[in-house]
Write a structure and sequence with these properties.
404 residues, alpha/beta, 8-stranded mixed beta barrel, 15 helices, 36% helix, 26% strand, elongated
Length: 404
């Protein structure tokens, strides 16, 4: 984790300026005003102790890539890099509660001062108040909520999709939203649109080889359906708690001019996708040239927040994926099973530079009760088949905080 003293404040704020972390609600302020007010004239003597205790509690809960910055004598800025707003704000709330209990001895709603950083302009931090009642508790399991769930009638219109492939087969695309939970914080941070392609004649689900046999036109049609379905969800919406939406997309579609045009026509590049969408590139393999991977990631970044790579089904080294700029790696445990876990064990034993290439490691369709084992293997997130519950919405109250 990177921490910054007041002396490096301007450089730190400059580094965050324009960052997607701001748009995603991952940068927040913790206010210690209540402790200062109760300390009165003793504050100058106690402030160092309060700062040290607060920083220690934050460091216990933050990851190695997260940022911690003290803005002034009562305000800490926290940027959570590998999670979305729900987890970032839940961490800030828990730490502030612990600090208040330690120094004041009780919790009062009026003492909990949390703000979401919306922008950094000309050395000033522009923020809005957060309502702590809308922030999930770290111990809460994901719960179902109407905030992000699509209208049932509209959902039935887009899921499943039936279409005839170029070869004449009738294919069915089934979508199944899966909540993605932070293993470190236990908070819902994303929703994965699990996707299955079924040959209706044989009722068999296409594996990676079967998907490779599809034409570019077939894959474009499937990816159009994925974006149509994704449009039903509240990506980046305040009421949805800034939960990310992970959308499967074909590598071949991204590198195809007609494919990119089709994605744009179906919402790619919109504010919603740029704020709340992640493309999961699902069909790269170990033989894909790194230059082509880099091109696919660059294309994805122009259309959404970033790109995840899906673990190839063929076992082998993941070195070709390193240094490309993927936001993370998804591992479909239900489909790849033991082979996937073997690859992950190898990954966990690799060099730190390789592990840094996948700051987010997402286990898809993980079995119940596997969180500790997954964390030990290096996973940061996991998805399940239970209902999802976005949360955390800011109060529309703005404040500009001058930076020293």
């Amino acid at each position: 984790m990177q921490t910054f003293s007041a002396g490096s404040l301007s450089e730190s704020l400059h580094a965050l300026q324009g960052s997607e972390l701001l748009a995603n609600g991952c940068v927040n302020l913790i206010g210690l005003d209540a402790i200062r007010d109760r300390a009165g004239p003793m504050w100058p003597r106690k402030q160092e102790l309060v700062w040290e205790f607060t920083a220690k509690k934050l460091q216990e809960r933050l990851g190695p890539h997260d940022l911690l910055l003290r803005v002034d004598d009562t305000t800490f800025l926290v940027a959570v890099v590998t999670d979305y707003a729900s987890a970032a704000q839940a961490v800030c709330l828990r730490v502030l509660e612990e600090v208040l209990l330690h120094f004041i001895g009780h919790l009062d709603r009026a003492d909990i001062r949390l703000r979401r950083v919306e922008d950094i302009r000309d050395g000033e931090v522009v923020s809005s108040s957060l309502d702590p009642t809308h922030i999930p508790k770290l111990e809460d399991a994901p719960r179902s909520s109407a905030a992000m769930a699509p209208d049932p009638v509209r959902e039935a219109e887009k899921n499943p999709l039936l279409f005839k492939s170029v070869s004449g087969r009738v294919l069915r695309v089934d979508f199944a939203p899966r909540p993605v939970t932070s293993l470190q914080h236990g908070v819902l941070t994303a929703l994965h649109l699990s996707q299955s392609i079924v040959d209706t004649e044989t009722n068999m689900v296409l594996d990676a080889s079967g998907r490779d046999d599809l034409t570019d036109a077939d894959l474009i049609r499937i990816d159009e359906a994925s974006l149509d379905y994704a449009s039903l969800f509240a990506m980046g919406d305040q009421a949805a708690g800034y939960v990310a939406l992970i959308i499967p997309v074909s590598y071949r579609t991204l590198l195809n001019r007609r494919g990119r045009a089709a994605l744009i026509a179906h919402g790619a590049g919109s504010v919603a996708l740029k704020t709340g969408g992640l493309f999961e590139i699902i069909d790269m393999d170990l033989g894909t040239p790194p230059s082509r991977m880099d091109e696919a990631v660059s294309m994805a970044r122009t259309l959404c927040r970033g790109a995840l790579a899906r673990l190839p089904e063929r076992h082998g080294s993941l070195t070709p994926f390193a240094g490309i700029g993927f936001a993370g790696l998804t591992v479909p445990l239900s489909r790849q099973g033991t082979q996937a876990m073997q690859t992950v064990r190898l990954l966990a034993s690799r060099s730190e530079s390789l592990k840094r290439s996948f700051r987010a490691m997402i286990a898809l369709d993980a079995p119940a009760g596997s969180a500790e084992r997954l964390r030990a293997l290096g996973f940061t997130h996991s998805s399940t088949e239970v209902a999802f519950s976005p949360s955390a919405s800011p109060i529309p109250d703005r404040e500009t905080l001058p930076a020293r």
